[in-house]
Every structure is written in structure tokens, then in C-alpha cells.
Amino acid sequence: MKLHQVPTPAYIIDEARLEKNLKILAKVQEEAGCKVLLAQKAYSLYATYPLISQYLSGTTASGLYEARLGREEFGGEVHVFAPAFKDSDIDQVLEVSDHIVFNSERQLRQHLEKCRAAGISVGLRINPEHSTQGDHALYDPCAPGSRFGVTLDKVSPELVSLVDGLHFHTLCEQDADDLAATLKVVEDKFGGYLHQVKWLNMGGGHHVTREGYQLDLLISEIKRIKETYNLEVYIEPGEAIALNAGYLATEVLDIVENGIETLILDASATCHMPDVLEMPYRPTLRDGFEAGEKAHTYRLSSNTCLTGDVIGDYSFENPVEIGDRLYFEDMAIYSFVKNNTFNGIGLPSLYLMKEDGDCQLIKAFGYEDFKGRLS
Questions:
Q1: Would strands 310-316 and 289-290 be described as parallel, antiparallel, or unpaired?
Q2: Mean pLDDT per segment of 10 residues, for the chain of length 375 residues?
Q3: pTM score
Q4: N or C end of the chain: smaller count of CB under 10 Å?
Q5: Is 239 annotated as a binding residue?
Q6: What is the tally of structural domains in the chain?
Q7: Main-chain phi, psi angles of 269, to 5 degrees
Q8: 105 and 180 share a domain?
């Protein structure tokens, strides 16, 4: 079926746009001589892993389940980081991992012997204490009091001698100039230790596939680090993998008038695109404009009982009517990996749109998916 025929609500992954992003990331891999990994926390639609694995070197995971998914469905290298690992999980994590990064000296020493026995490459996350995200403390691993990574005052040559690599992750939807600024601080503080290790993982948050991203700067910085310290470099973007490669299709169920006309949709911010409320941000809407920019302005909301389940205010050139379809864009990342069934709202189906515009159903969800999570 074509996009306009897909039952709503539904997430639709645009395969052509996905592959366009992958080709850019593959260029980085080739020209910089690094390895690019898919951060599954942002995008885990494993139906597309056969395509992604043609371009990237492996996956990163935030725990056991993502590590298993990467091993079972993607192949390549599997890297795992978590703030802490449960003793009951660590053996299973090691069975499916190639690299494991610890967040603290305590966690490292607690699990080191098992890692070595399993032949796992071991890393330690460092915190350069250099913020580049302005006021967005919610997404700043270098904010004061951050629980992520070991600061310089807690690092010693003996501690670094226990690991194969170092890891930092400080960016969020940022350009290469922020990485360059961060690398300067990392080198000033931890440069001596970089000569001791075999690899450096620069984490995620690199908005590589965004229009205007400074690709040449990213490549040159990675090459410089490789040559200066004679080590292997990894980056693990999540958002860049599927940036602008997905849509959320929804239908207008009703229009409520109370000072402003509110469209009641069968898609929900809190259930189907929670970052709209958590970040917060206003998602791009096809044929939608800023409030007041066009003749007809509406508030877009959902069919839940949460008063604040509001997506935002948009204007349109023509009046919107009940039964009309709307398409939110850039809905491949941090959407279905975070969605939920609050209020008994159903999960959107998953579709893959081929290059010719045909949409193929990957999976549909129903009542049993809601009920099965509760008992």
C-alpha cells in the first residue's frame, strides 16, 4: 500500500532516507579510518538491521537486552555501557558482547576478572567535565553532579592499566566543532592516558547526517586522534542513523473548540513521541506551519486523559477536517523505542516504505500487547 493507505496510527520508516544517512556514515568510516556503531537506544527497528549492517561496524547497547538484540540481529561488534551492571546479568552480558565499558572504578574492579576470562575488551568511561550544551542539563553528561564517568581526580595510571580503552559521551545533537572543543579538553586532561590504551570511543550525539554538519572537521579530528595516540577510534551515533527517515501517520478524530480549536488525534505525545514532552520540542509536521503563520491555527492533542498531552500549535493553509490525515516527520528516532500503552492507548503499527513508495507492514500491535505488560 502507499503512504496515504496505511492505517493510523503508524510509524513508517523511509528506507531511501535511511540508506542516504548510512552512506554518509560509511564515508566517515572509510575516510577517517574509524568504526561507526549504531546506538540502539535511539533506533532499534531490527527489521532494517540487514541494511544497516552493510554500512556500519556494529552496535552499542545500554544493557543486556539491547546487547542480545545487537548480537542476534545485527552481527558485527557489540559494545555495552551501563551506569552499573547487576551481578545476575553480567554473565549473560559477557556472552553477547565484544566490548564492555564501566562507569566507575568500583564496577570495573568488581567485574574485571570475569571480563578478562571471557576475552572481553574492557573500557572505562571518563568525564572531561566540559559542557557544550548550554542550559540543557537533562541531556548534559558533564553537568555538575553528573553520575556519568570518572573525573580526572579519580583516575590514575594503575587504574588505566586495567583497561583497553577509554570512552566519553558528552554531545547531544551537536556539530563537529563541539566535538573538537571537547577533544581539546580530553587531551589536556587525559592525553597521557590515551598513550596507554588501544582504543577511544567518542560516544554519540554527533549529528553527522544533519544538513550543514561539518563532516570534514569530524573526519580530520578522528584522523588526528588516531595518528597522535596510535589507537582505534569508535563513534556511536544514534540519531544520525535514522535522522529524518521516519514518519508518524495520524488521523483527526474530533475538533474541540475552547478558545482555540484543538484537533483530537489518534496519536499521542506521551504515548507515541514522549520526547515531545520530555525534551521538550515541537515536531515537524508535513504541510504544517508555525502558529499564526497561515490562515488556520489549531492545537494538536491526543485521545488520552492527560491534560498536558499536547503536541503543539500549528497553522495550515486550509481548514483541517475530521478524518484528515497528518504526518509528523523525523519520527524514526527515540519514538517507538520509548513508546508506551498509557491509558490503554494502542501502539502504532510499524511499516517500511520502499524506494518506490510502497509501504510494507513489519508489525501490528493489539490488545494482547497492552495486557501482556500488566500481569
A1: antiparallel
A2: 96 98 98 98 98 98 98 98 97 98 98 98 98 80 95 98 98 96 98 98 98 98 98 97 98 97 98 94 96 98 97 98 98 96 97 97 98 95
A3: 0.96
A4: C
A5: yes
A6: 2
A7: -65, -50
A8: yes
